[in-house]
């Protein structure tokens, strides 16, 4: 490392963090460091020791900073997102997996602690495949099916199954919620769209401008998907089967009411790490 190289690299990160802060990006310095690592494929500690190489490629970093400042999500810039114990590829065709959704996997493990107790899993609205693949990673004897309306999204989920060594135990189908599958499953998982239509413009700009609207728009009251999915569960669940569905803040009573009207029992309403009721467990 030549004298001053480390300070020049630090200055780049500092200027980028100010730029991101001014554009409303939370934790601007942390984001700037992550973008620096993305641009050079190395940790910041390596970069600080290779100032000449860094100075030669500042354009790539600057491009990432501009895109992040415009609101493009970090996961789409990197093409990667961790979920549960998995590393997933993500594209703008898929909703970015979130830690809140891991609440469903935790609930499944709590209610089915025996790893031999689940042999079949259905994921409705599979997106990146995160829920299905997380479940399969925990139940080594299980086979799973992921359903999504979009062909490109289903292809991305299939790619993630390959990346995580689960392709032999997963299949992906392009279909609607209510399309008959002519099969029963030990577990049905779903994180359907649940944002009321009128609330969509008020979401964070990196969500509303970049993530797929079809994965967010839950209709006038946010409950359209539940009215479609829940009545089909009596045909999709095997005896003693469980359905675990994610929903939005404050929607638990409405979702439970739809389940009751369909003859299903509420086993549990589950809180996420922030203490927010995030998911419901249903049985026949």
Written overview of the protein:
Residues 12-79 form the Release factor glutamine methyltransferase N-terminal domain. Belongs to the protein N5-glutamine methyltransferase family. PrmC subfamily. This is Release factor glutamine methyltransferase. The strands form 2 sheets. This protein has a 7-stranded mixed beta sheet, sandwiched between helices. The chain has a two-stranded antiparallel ribbon with strand order 1-2. Helix 1 (5-22) crosses helix 2 (28-40), helix 2 crosses helix 5 and helix 7 (102-111) runs parallel beside helix 8 (130-138). The protein has 2 domains: 5-70, no CATH class; 80-283, Rossmann fold (3-Layer(aba) Sandwich). The protein is globular and about 65 Å long. Strand 3, helix 8 (130-138) and strand 4 form a beta-alpha-beta unit. It has 13 helices and 9 strands. Helix content is 40%, strand content 19%. The model is unreliable at 1-5 (pLDDT under 50). The chain is an alpha/beta fold and 284 residues long.
């Amino acid at each position: 490392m030549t004298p001053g190289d480390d300070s020049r690299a630090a200055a780049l990160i500092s200027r980028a963090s100010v730029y991101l802060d001014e554009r409303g990006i939370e934790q601007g310095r942390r984001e700037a460091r992550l973008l620096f690592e993305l641009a050079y494929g190395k940790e910041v500690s390596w970069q600080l020791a290779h100032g000449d190489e860094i100075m030669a490629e500042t354009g790539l970093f600057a491009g990432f900073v501009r895109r992040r400042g415009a609101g493009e999500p970090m996961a789409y810039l990197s093409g990667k997102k961790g979920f549960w114990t998995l590393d997933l590829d993500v594209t703008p065709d898929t909703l970015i997996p979130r830690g809140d959704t891991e609440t469903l996997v935790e609930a499944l493990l709590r209610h089915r602690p025996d790893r031999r107790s689940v042999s079949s899993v259905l994921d409705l609205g599979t997106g990146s495949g995160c829920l299905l693949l997380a479940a399969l990673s925990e139940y080594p004897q299980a086979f799973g099916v992921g359903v999504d309306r979009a062909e490109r999204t289903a292809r991305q989920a299939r790619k993630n199954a390959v990346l995580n060594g689960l392709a032999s135990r997963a299949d992906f189908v392009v279909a609607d919620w209510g399309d008959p599958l002519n099969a029963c499953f030990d577990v049905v998982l779903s994180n359907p769209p649940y944002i009321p239509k009128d609330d969509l413009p008020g979401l964070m700009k990196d969500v509303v401008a970049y993530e797929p609207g079809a994965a967010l728009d839950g209709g006038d009251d946010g409950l359209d998907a539940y009215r479609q999915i829940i009545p089909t569960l009596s045909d999709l669940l095997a005896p003693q089967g469980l359905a675990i569905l994610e929903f939005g803040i404050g929607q638990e009573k409405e979702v439970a009411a739809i389940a009751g009207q369909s003859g299903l029992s509420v086993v549990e309403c589950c809180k996420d790490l922030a203490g927010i009721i995030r998911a419901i467990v249903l049985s026949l």
